[in-house]
Specification:
This protein has a single domain (7-129), classed as 2,3-Dihydroxybiphenyl 1,2-Dioxygenase, domain 1 (Roll), CATH 3.10.180. Strands 1-4-3-2 form a four-stranded mixed β-sheet, with helices on one face. Strands 5-8-7-6 form a four-stranded mixed β-sheet, covered by helices on one side. With 130 residues, the protein is of the alpha/beta class. Helix content is 17%, strand content 38%. The mean pLDDT is 90. It starts with 6 loop residues before the first strand and ends in a 7-residue tail after the last strand. InterPro entries: Glyas_Bleomycin-R_OHBP_Dase (IPR029068), Glyas_Fos-R_dOase_dom (IPR004360), VOC_core (IPR037523). Residues 2-123 form the VOC domain. This is Glyoxalase-like domain.
Length: 130
């Protein structure tokens, strides 16, 4: 098997709210859209994000009533503290403050208007790793 691209799909109540959040605060652009559907992309990200309106008929019947929950989308970034400052200045609530895990992962989290959790990560190196 060869994988040529990757997408993660979220079922949400308000597709436009997630689209606007990821475009405004995380630099994604709209690749395609239709009623109840949007696909977002970033040239430097290895994944497209797809948002589907809950109940949309393109979903299999057993998934239509579900919504995104318990999933964390993680992006490795440069200047993690600077990103946290930027997002705060833009009015984004930091839902998990910046912290460092014992294994060297530095992270903080934000949440989009539909409850999609986003973790921004920077890996500590050398002595910073603990």
């Amino acid at each position: 098997m060869q994988i040529s691209s990757t997408a993660i799909s979220f079922t949400v109540e308000d597709v436009d709210a997630s689209r606007d959040f990821f475009r405004r605060h995380l630099g994604f652009t709209e690749a395609m859209a239709a009623d109840g559907f949007v696909s977002l992309t970033r040239e430097d990200a290895a994944v497209n994000l797809v948002f589907l309106r809950r109940g949309i008929e393109v979903l299999p019947a057993h998934l239509r009533a579900q919504r995104a929950a318990g999933t964390i989308v993680a992006f490795v970034v440069d200047d993690l503290a600077g990103e946290q400052d930027r997002l705060r200045a833009e009015g984004v609530e930091i839902t998990l403050p910046l912290r460092q895990e014992p294994w060297g992962e530095r992270l903080f989290m934000i949440t989009d208007p539909n409850g999609v959790s986003v973790e921004l990560v920077e890996w500590a190196t050398g002595d910073e790793a603990g």
